[in-house]
Every structure is written in structure tokens, then in C-alpha cells.
Design brief:
globular, Rossmann fold, two-stranded parallel ribbon, 9 strands, alpha/beta, seven-stranded parallel sheet
């Protein structure tokens, strides 16, 4: 049960349910909102899972796709921030894996939103993905009003969820805010950012010096701040917002910055990109190399203008925090292994 004290700003929805509370984004979000004075209830699959220390209240739902009744979890909740989702596939997805993904990323989301509307929840913030727009940009960055063009199952599931939520919003009056973030990085990183940190830490030569791409990135601290704004701002509902730090980098720039924060050498070796992609395809690593070599930029100017928002954390500072956290974890794990 929420411990609620004192008056609150009528514009700000203070009692918030965050799904996926022990995920990469969910952990930071629960802590950030709680520190900002929100009453946060975070859902996790199981309380056996390590929950971060924060003033948030954690509740176990079991597998999110199996939750048929959200009633007790939505008690006294004014807003929902949905961050829970399956991660991307590694390798070709099977039909069974796609069905499972859709049951989590689409079915469970729609069920939660419908019950939230019936329970009197005012606002639903949905964490989607820039992959709804597509994987690669060429002549210009993605914009919020572009026709969606997801090309793989994860992006398609996120678009399907957006469409289901839009229908529920239209039918019930539930205020819907859709956020499509670029690649998110921060403490306890995942995916390609974690992989790059490992390579740089070990000073492994990387055949990426010939890559000339541009990627939009987003510090998790800046994403959390924007979500806080969306919980209060009257202009947020009914919109889809693209979110990034606004400082796009090439993969080589990112590697050099990681190396600089680590005090390591960036060992970048020239190698023809088409040969790199061909080799990766033969080794079954095509998606990983595509992620490191393609351009994927988004235009977040409308988000900033509409919400009068600027990312509060400098991207290089945020990357330094992420690297420091990575090195701390490596040191702790090294200590345990002796």
C-alpha cells in the first residue's frame, strides 16, 4: 500500500505503477521517481529477483503475460509507466518465440491498459522503441510523424502495442503517452553498449575504424527525467515522442569515449565494412554487426519543444557514470572469484 503524506500538485500524477521495475530502465526509473517525491509501486516477476534499494514499493505479479487481474496492483494508482518487455532476439526467431513475444509485448500491455482505465488510472506512459520507425536511417533522421516501418519482430510487436493502446485510449479516455527512445545506456548496461565496454576493457582490437555511421543515444537518466515531465505536462497525452540525448555519435566516437573514461586505448583497426558484414553473416552474427555499423538517428526537437524539456545530464558525463559502474561491477566480480 502506498504511504502517502501531504498535499500534492494537482497537475502531477503522484501515485505511479512502474512495470518491469527490476529491468535496466525500470530500476533507474523507480529510484528516480521515488527521489522526486512520487509514490512508486514497481512490479516484478518475483520478489526473489534482486530489487534495487529505493523508497519504491515492490510487488510480485508472476509472468506478466499470465496476469489476468491487475486490480490490487492498480489500487490508488493515478498513472502507469509500462517498461516491461521481452528483449530482442539473437538469431532467427521461431514462430513460438514470436508468439511468446507478442503475448508479452502486446497482449499483456493491452490487458493492463484496459484494466487501468476501468480502475480510474488517468495516464498511461508506454515505453515503445525507435525500432517502430525502422532500423536504419540514410538521408535524414526519423521523425514522430513518419509512417512506421518496423522490419523485425520486436519493432512489429511494439507497433502493435501502440495501436492497441491507442484504441483503448480512444474508447476509454485513458490519457496515452508513447515514447520511442533511441539506444539507451547507463549504469549496469546491456546489449551492444555492454559488449563494447568489454572489448575496450580488454583492449581487444576492433575492425570498426572504417565504419562511418551516426547513432542517436539516450542516457537512462535523461529518459527518466522525460518520463517525470510526462507525468505532469498537460501537452504530453495523445502524443508520440521520439527521445534522445541530441548528441549523435559514430560507433568509433562511442568506443573512443568509452576508452577515454576507462583509461584504455581504443584499438580500432580499418576493415572494409561490406567484408565485415559478410563475415558476420557467415558466423551468424549479422544482427550484432548491423547494430554497430548502421546509422540510426532520430529527431527529438519536437519532443523538446512540445514539452519544454532539455536533457538534464550531459551525455559524456552519463557515459562516464556508466563506465564507472561497469568497472565497479567488474572489480566486485573479480573479488568474488578469488
Amino acid at each position: 500500500m502506498f504511504k502517502y503524506q501531504g498535499d500534492h500538485d494537482e497537475m502531477t500524477l503522484k501515485r505511479v505503477l512502474v512495470t518491469g521495475a527490476n529491468g535496466f530502465i525500470g530500476q533507474s526509473l523507480c529510484a528516480s521517481l521515488a527521489e522526486s517525491g512520487f509514490m512508486v509501486r514497481g512490479t516484478v516477476r518475483s520478489l526473489d529477483t534482486k530489487c534495487p534499494e529505493s523508497p519504491a514499493e515492490y510487488v510480485a505479479t508472476g509472468p506478466i503475460e499470465a496476469v489476468n487481474n491487475w486490480g490490487s496492483f492498480l489500487d490508488k494508482v493515478e498513472a502507469v509507466v509500462h517498461t516491461a518487455a521481452t528483449s530482442d532476439f539473437h538469431g532467427p526467431p521461431s514462430k513460438q518465440a514470436i508468439d511468446q513475444m507478442n503475448s508479452i509485448n502486446v497482449g499483456a500491455v493491452a490487458r493492463l491498459a484496459g484494466q487501468a482505465a476501468n480502475a480510474g488510472v488517468k495516464r498511461f506512459i508506454y515505453l515503445s522503441s525507435i525500432k517502430v520507425n525502422g532500423l536504419t536511417t540514410t538521408d535524414r533522421p526519423f521523425r514522430a510523424d513518419d509512417r512506421p516501418h518496423p522490419v523485425e519482430p520486436y519493432g512489429k510487436s511494439k507497433l502493435a502495442a501502440e495501436q492497441a493502446l491507442s484504441e483503448i485510449s480512444a474508447d476509454t479516455g485513458l490519457e496515452l503517452v508513447i515514447l520511442r527512445p533511441s539506444l539507451v545506456y547507463g549504469p549496469n548496461p546491456r546489449g551492444s553498449v555492454l559488449q563494447l565496454m568489454r572489448f575496450v576493457d580488454r583492449e581487444i582490437p576492433l575492425p570498426l575504424a572504417s565504419v562511418n555511421n551516426r547513432r542517436s543515444l539516450l542516457a537512462v537518466q535523461n529518459l527518466c527525467d522525460l518520463i517525470r515531465v510526462c507525468l505532469a505536462h498537460s501537452e504530453a497525452p495523445g502524443n508520440t515522442f521520439l527521445v534522445s540525448d541530441g548528441a549523435d555519435l559514430s560507433t568509433c566516437d562511442l568506443i573512443r569515449r568509452i576508452a577515454s573514461h576507462m583509461g584504455r586505448k581504443a584499438r580500432l583497426v580499418p576493415f572494409p565494412v561490406f567484408l565485415l558484414r559478410m563475415s558476420a553473416s557467415l558466423l551468424g552474427r549479422a544482427s550484432e554487426i548491423q547494430a554497430l555499423t548502421r546509422s540510426q538517428q532520430l529527431d527529438s526537437n519536437e519532443t523538446r519543444d512540445r514539452l519544454d524539456w532539455l536533457p538534464p545530464v550531459d551525455p559524456d558525463e552519463a557515459l562516464g557514470i556508466a563506465v564507472e559502474d561497469y568497472l565497479h561491477l567488474q572489480s566486485a566480480n573479480s573479488g568474488h572469484s578469488h
